[in-house]
Design goal:
Radius of gyration: 16 Å
Strand order of the largest sheet: 3-4-5
Distance between the termini: 52 Å
Largest sheet: 3 strands, mixed
Structural class: alpha+beta
Strand content: 15-25%
Helix content: 25-40%
Amino acid sequence: MRSEDRGYFRITGRIDDVLNVSGHRMGTMEIESALVAKTDLVAEAAVVGRPDDVTGEAICAFVVLKRGRPTGDEAKAIATELRNWVAKEIGPIAKPKDIRFGDNLPKTRSGKIMRRLLRSLAKGEAITQDTSTLENPAILDQLAETN
């Protein structure tokens, strides 16, 4: 007999990435899934937390669009659209405070997203960790730019 048949649920995913925003605990995977559910616009997304004086932790999303990387007013308009989308899908508390656009995400050659680097970028810290395994090290400079 399966555990689901007995009324138990097995939850899989990254349990180490839980954000505490204004006392609400949210998984980064849920926010990433909501962003990627905007299938006409978003190709890939990664979410990390950064310290925030007001909410304790702020949500920072790194997004790859299905078209070119936007800049200026276009980037602000798309970021607003994505925030409203997440608010509709999950709730207003889950809206990312920062959304940064890139041509891709920092990945190892095997395709794993290097979230520790994204956390450093979200905090505004200089990257001092080892980046020798990155597929495209130049992406870090692009993602460091805020919109």
